[in-house]
Amino acid sequence: MTRATQAAAVCLLLLGGLWIASGWWERQFATKIWEQVSPRECLRLEVYQPFWVLPWALHSQPHPDPGMPQRPFWRLPGWESPAFYRLYDQRTGELLAETGVYDAAYLGSSDITWGGMVRVGMLEVADVRDHFCIRR
After folding, report:
1. What is the number of other CB atoms lying within 10 angstroms of the CB of residue 97?
2. In this predicted model, what pLDDT tens digit does every residue of 8-63 receive, in sequence order?
3. 20 to 30 A from 33, CA-CA: which of 49, 58, 86, 103?
């Protein structure tokens, strides 16, 4: 291998490792924006802003409806308000669900539905029909 080939391989490995690691640190170093407790006070939904070091163009932007195709990042308008959601059992503090990162500006609404399926706008956060709070 020539020096140029070796340098290119090292750069690709470093960039690939950085991209993979960014999936971890975007959640671990995220900033909590707000939280809301369910009407029965047994579930808690927290909203986080991910910690991004890489440019927005390197982050895919999934559609809140899993049945819709995902557009390639070069055809996206950009991130307006990236966020992800964590749902906790308010009584024990157990993490029940965590969503991917979505653009909160495109969820259709910020209204929370606390029925058998916890939703924020179009985004399904978790199916909690078997949770003790919902079964009562």
Report:
1. 15
2. 888 888 877 777 777 778 888 889 999 999 988 889 999 998 887 666 555 566 55
3. 58
Which residue stretches of 29-82 are H helix?
none
Distance CA 130, CA 109 (A): 26
Amino acid identity at 87:
L
How do residues 55-111 score in pLDDT, each as one tens digit? 655 556 655 556 666 655 555 566 777 888 999 999 899 999 998 888 777 777 778
CA distance 125 to 110: 13
Q: 41-59 in b/e burial notation, b at 16+ Cβ within 10 A? A: ebbbbbbbbbebeeeeeeb
CA distance linking residue 38 with residue 136, whole number of Å? 14
Residue tagged 């029940």 (tokens): 96
Query: What token pair was written down for 97?
Result: 């669900």
| φ, ψ for residue 86, nearest 5 deg | -125, 130
Provide the residue count of the chain. 136
Alpha carbons 128 and 71: distance in angstroms, whole number: 30
pTM of the predicted structure, to 2 decimals: 0.74
